[in-house]
Amino acid sequence: MPSHAEHHPAVSADPGAVPRTLSRGGRVQACVAAMTPHLYVPTAERPVRAKMRKLRADTRVMPHSHAWAQVAISATGVIRLSTERGTYIVPPWRALWIPPGVEHAVTVVEDADMRTLYFHQPADCCGPGVAPADEAPWRTCRVLEVSELLRALVREMPCVPDDAPPLPPEALQRERLLSALILEEMRRASAVPLGVDLPRDKRLRQLCEAVLADPTRHETLADWACDTGASPRTVARLFRQDLGRTFTQWRQQVILARAVALAAGRMPIKQIAAELGYNSPSAFSAMVHRAVGMPPARFLGLQHD
C-alpha cells in the first residue's frame, strides 16, 4: 500500500469545518472534520502526543492526512478506518498504525471512545523508533495487537492541546517516560491480518464496497458480478490483476473483519458463525484458524493474554 510520503500537509481536513449529515443506506451519517490535529503536533522533544474523542455510531471523520505517523485505538466501541487502497476494522483490543502522509477517513461502527497517538518521524524514517532495516512493515498501514500495558500507557498519556496552558516540567517528564514505554510496546506488538485491500478499478471497487456492506447477501461470484454488469470471468480476472488474489480469498478477509466487529459487541461465536452464513460454529472456527493461524477466541478478542 503506498504511503504517499511525498504529500506532507499538516492536515488536509479543515479543523474548523462545521459537522454536517448525509444519508447513506437509509441512515443519517454525521460527518465531522479531524479533531484539531494541528494542536497535537509531535516533535523531537515530545515524540508521542495523545488526544481523545468520543464519537457516536455512524459518525464519519472526513478524509485527512498528517505529516507524522498515527495510531488509532478505540478504548471502547469499533471504528473502521479507510484509505485509498484498504479498509481496516479496529476493535478495542487492536490498534491501527498509519504512516505519514496516508489520507484516511474514520467511520464509527458503534459508539467509540477513540484515542489517537501521533508519532514524530525524523526525516526519511518511518516506525516507532525502529532500525532502518526494520522500517519496511511500518511504511504501510497495519493492525496491531494491543497489550494490557500499552492500553494502560495510552490511558495515562496527557491529552492536552497546544492552545491550553503548558504542562509543568514534571508532567512533561512523565510524558517522556510514558512515550518511551509506548514506543517499546509498539515495537513488540504483533501484526494481525485485519486489513481488506481495495482495488483501483471502478467496477471492482463498486462490487467490493457492496461486499463490505453486506458480505452474506450473495454466495457466489456470479451473483455478485450481476450487480456490476461484468461477466464473472471478467470480475475474477480483475481480482487477480488488481488485488493479487481470488474473490474467495478476498471475501474471506471481509468475513474476518466483520466477525471481529461482531465479537466486539460481545456476540458469542455461535451467533457470529450464524450471522456470517456458517452452518456450525466449528466450521467457522476452523476457517478462522486456517486463515490467521491463531485460536478464534484470541483473534476475535474473546480472550486476552
UniProtKB/TrEMBL annotation:
Q: Among its keywords, does the record have Transcription regulation?
A: yes
- Write out the entry's keywords from A to Z: DNA-binding, Transcription, Transcription regulation
Region ranges (Disordered): 1-22
**Can the keyword Zinc-finger be found in this entry's annotation?**
no
Q: Which InterPro entries does UniProt cross-reference here?
A: AraC-bd, Homeodomain-like_sf, HTH_AraC, RmlC-like_jellyroll, RmlC_Cupin_sf
Specify the HTH araC/xylS-type domain's residue ranges. Answer: 202-302
Q: What SMART domains does the record tag this protein with?
A: HTH_ARAC
Gene3D superfamilies membership = Homeodomain-like, Jelly Rolls
- One Gene Ontology term of the molecular function aspect: DNA-binding transcription factor activity
> What name does the UniProt record give this protein?
AraC family transcriptional regulator
Species of provenance:
Thauera linaloolentis (strain DSM 12138 / JCM 21573 / CCUG 41526 / CIP 105981 / IAM 15112 / NBRC 102519 / 47Lol)
